[in-house]
Design goal:
The structure holds two protein chains of two kinds. Chain A is an alpha/beta fold. Chain A is built from 15 helices and 18 strands. The model of chain A has no long low-confidence stretch (mean pLDDT 97). Classes of the chains: A alpha/beta, B alpha/beta. The interface between A and B is medium-sized, with 24 and 28 residues. Chain B: Pathway: Carbohydrate degradation; 2-deoxy-D-ribose 1-phosphate degradation; D-glyceraldehyde 3-phosphate and acetaldehyde from 2-deoxy-alpha-D-ribose 1-phosphate: step 2/2.
Chain lengths: 474, 304
């Protein structure tokens, strides 16, 4: 009766046909001439071509970053560095709509999220760290702490611009220069950010962007950098930790997760359902801290599930550039097949699968929001990170059982607690082994709040005063 | 409909309702408000919103002339625009409104029960209601006893609503919670359930006479309450936000909330109303804009 007509975002960013590597303030092609295509996952059409960095390019970029660190950025006062960061933050705000649309096209995530979350939060990260640049002596990390030097950074495809901001903003604020490798499926906003650095007049070599795949990343890790910062899968994180072991390189890792969202029987049910939906279906579930396990108290499980399904029925899956889209495209064919394979194991192991009736576009990579009920702790869908819009629902009887099940995972990135009782929130938060515990909310981020994991979810913190430690020689 | 519950049962059920997380509720309302309703769906939404309006005048200065003017506008707002759902007046104006609206299908709603404060003895409130019904009101908009509610006397509030329901006879009963005076979301949820158990046909946010009137989060919460009440009892109850909804953009946000919280079953003026006066002209101007492609102005819609 009340159908929403298509509401496509009208702004179109200026996407070039070809991008080079950004080294020493210039766009250059790869030494060996290698290029690859970036595809729009909602249409499967190629968006642009981009140079792929090899070992020689990595060496060049690291040398440029070293030069910039020794001659310009290192000697520069914190107040001056802060000015550049403020300028970058303001430019990001000015170009917010172009960045949001570009991110949606390259990544597949809905414009609603890039517009209201990714880009504003990225800008906030630069504003926040710009403020730290001349106040590092007051960060509680010693008087006049020094930068590490050149930092190699490898980021994932789920929040391309935001992860770039999480990495670059604190590194620059602390006086380091960076060589950053965006994910091979989502280099666009990193390259647009490189153009923005040129526009901001950032000294050449302070920021270098090297698109490429795994080989580029491992060349960067093995290069003459002083520190490696990585966000991505636990398997790759483990390989990086091995590669830098025995060297003087510092490393911080933000890896996978299998977060539990615990709903107690005294929770505000409607808001809890909303938080569960946001926890797992935000960004198609491509979130390392996604609430992929719902632990619901058995006495309210039926009611919660009924409401959850009714709510999921209203999610709108489709064109990422439509302003009413809630769930966009899966980022790549590879990720889609990974999600499919894991959900098939769920069905095979006896969990009940449920999906809303919704039409999916014919082209592109799509996966319906999926809820598994009757999930047992021993099933793969309760243990392994799916990194897609797939929720596993488990039940518990007592608060102790909830904590035991929530902690029964190799990961420890995030957790959620839903109850109207403040004392129960504190009780649970003390016992949950997770870097972040959200109470009566989920997936909330702020530049001032440190983020990071325990156990196989990695080490080091990003954001806040604590996040500065990762980029200072302390 | 009515209720099979005793006052004590209703009060204890209502006190046992789960809490409302204010941050989460407001975030959900803000999320719904970001829906972008354009072109054909906007045109349909505008006509739907017009058909849901209780065109209201509740002033000490109301005269038969003013009420007749409003009634004419309600029946034929502008060209081929649909009629509004009802005209909402004080009891003294019901007869005039009834006469002006005879045979048009537009209902006469009357506020009653010592509107807006309700701070008069119950027998006066009931007499007020009976008079409005006798004069021809199709719908009664009552106010709850906020004083009793805030003092914790839920049973009394329950019995008073039941009594007004009985006095309303065949007229549909809209129960005004005056959410601006209840202040907390928990209280709004409790009052909603209490009113529904007592036999409300509609729950309504506000009188329009206090500082805080309808807001999207409060109305969303009341929508969740009627949804849950139907699931629990099988009885469908309508929702009426009133006061403060002045433009098309806001009205469409409420319709989006109805659509995504309650669905088709509530998307008609049988189950959803806007208590408003200035909203109608903004809807009409937006309607003209969609038809002609040009913005009109206040002189292209009538002042009533």
């Amino acid at each position: 009766m009340f159908e929403y007509a298509p509401a496509p975002e009208s702004v179109r960013p200026d996407i070039k046909e070809h991008y080079g590597l950004f080294i020493g303030g210039e766009f250059v092609d790869a030494e060996d001439g290698a290029v690859f295509k970036s595809v729009n996952p909602s249409t499967e059409e190629a968006l642009f071509t981009v140079a792929e960095a090899g070992e020689a390019d990595v060496a060049k970029a690291v040398a440029a970053a070293r030069r910039a660190h020794e001659t310009v950025w290192g000697p520069m006062s914190g107040a001056e560095r802060g000015k550049y960061l403020f300028r970058i933050a303001r430019l990001l705000q000015e170009k917010a709509r172009e960045f949001a649309v570009a991110e949606s096209m390259d990544n597949g995530k809905p414009i609603k999220e890039t517009r209201d979350f990714d880009v504003p939060t990225a800008a906030q990260h630069f504003f926040y760290h710009a403020g730290w640049a001349d106040k590092l002596s007051y960060a509680g990390l010693g008087a006049d702490p020094k930068p590490l030097g050149v930092v190699g950074q490898v980021i994932p495809w789920n929040f391309p611009l935001l992860m770039l901001a999480w990495k670059i903003a604190p590194a620059l604020a602390c006086g380091n220069t960076v060589v950053l490798k965006p994910a091979e499926t989502t280099p666009l906003t990193a390259l647009m950010f490189a153009e923005l650095c040129q526009e901001a007049g950032l000294p050449a070599g302070v920021v270098n962007i090297l698109p490429g795949a795994g080989a580029t990343g491992s060349a960067l890790v093995d290069s003459a950098v002083d520190k490696v910062a990585f966000t991505g899968s636990t398997a790759v994180g483990r390989a990086i930790a091995k590669a830098v072991a025995g060297s003087k390189k510092k490393v911080t890792l933000e890896l996978g997760g299998k977060a539990a969202n615990i709903v107690f029987d005294d929770a505000p049910i409607d808001q809890a359902v909303e938080g569960v939906v946001n926890g797992i279906f935000f960004n198609q579930g491509h979130v390392c801290c996604a609430g992929s396990r719902l632990l619901v108290q058995e006495s309210v499980a039926d009611e919660v599930l009924e409401r959850l399904k009714a709510r999921v029925e209203t999610l709108r899956v489709g064109d990422p550039l439509d302003k009413n889209t809630d769930i966009g495209a899966i980022n790549s064919a590879e990720q889609l097949s990974r999600i499919r394979a894991l959900t098939e194991t769920g069905e095979g192991e006896g969990a009940d699968v449920w999906q809303p009736a919704c039409d999916l576009p014919e082209r592109g990579f799509w996966f319906r929001p999926t809820v598994f009920t009757g999930v047992q702790q021993s099933m793969r869908i309760a243990q392994e990170e799916i990194f897609g819009p797939v929720l596993s629902v488990l039940t518990f009887r007592t608060p102790d059982e909830a904590i035991a099940k929530a902690n029964n995972t190799p990961y420890g990135l995030s957790a959620g607690v839903w109850t109207e009782k403040g004392s129960k929130i504190l009780w649970a938060a003390e016992r949950l082994r997770a870097g972040v515990v959200w109470a009566n909310t989920f997936n909330q981020f702020d530049a001032a709040s440190p983020f990071g994991g325990l156990k196989e979810s990695g080490y080091g913190r990003e954001g806040g005063r604590q996040g500065l430690e990762a980029y200072l020689d302390v | 409909m009515g209720s099979i519950l005793s006052g004590a049962e209703a009060a204890s059920l209502v006190r046992a309702l789960p809490g409302v997380d204010a941050v989460g509720l407001e975030a959900r309302a803000a999320g719904l408000a970001t829906r972008s309703v354009k072109t054909t769906s906007k045109a349909r939404a505008i006509d739907l919103a017009i058909s849901m309006i209780d065109l209201t005048t509740l002033e000490g200065a109301d005269t038969p002339g003013k009420v007749r003017s409003l009634a004419a506008k309600a029946v034929r707002p502008d060209g081929d625009a649909p009629s509004t759902a009802a005209v909402c007046v004080y009891p003294s104006m019901v007869a005039t409104a009834k006469e002006a609206l005879r045979g048009t299908g537009v209902k006469v709603a009357s506020v009653a029960t010592g509107f807006p404060a309700g701070q008069v003895p119950l027998d006066v409130r009931l007499a007020d209601t009976e008079a409005a019904v006798r004069a021809g009101a199709d719908e009664i908009d009552m106010v709850i006893n906020r004083g009793a509610f805030l003092a914790g006397d839920l049973e009394r509030v329950f019995h008073e609503i039941k009594a007004v329901k009985a006095a309303s006879g065949d007229a549909r009963l809209k129960v005004i919670l005056e959410t601006g005076e209840l202040a907390t979301y928990d209280a709004v949820r409790q009052a909603s359930w209490l009113a529904m158990h007592a036999g409300a046909d509609f729950i309504k946010t506000s009188t329009g006479k206090v500082g805080v009137n309808a807001t999207l989060p409060v109305t969303l919460l009341m929508m969740q309450a009627v949804r849950d009440f139907r699931a629990a009892t099988g009885v469908q109850v309508g929702v009426k936000p009133a006061g403060g909804i002045r433009n098309t953009k806001d009205a469409i946000k409420y319709l989006v909330a109805v659509n995504e919280t309650l669905g088709d079953d509530w998307l008609s003026n049988e189950w959803f109303r806007f208590g408003a006066s200035s909203l109608l002209n903004d809807l009409l101007m937006q309607r003209q804009k969609l038809k002609t492609g040009r913005y009109s102005g206040p002189d292209y819609v009538t002042v009533d």
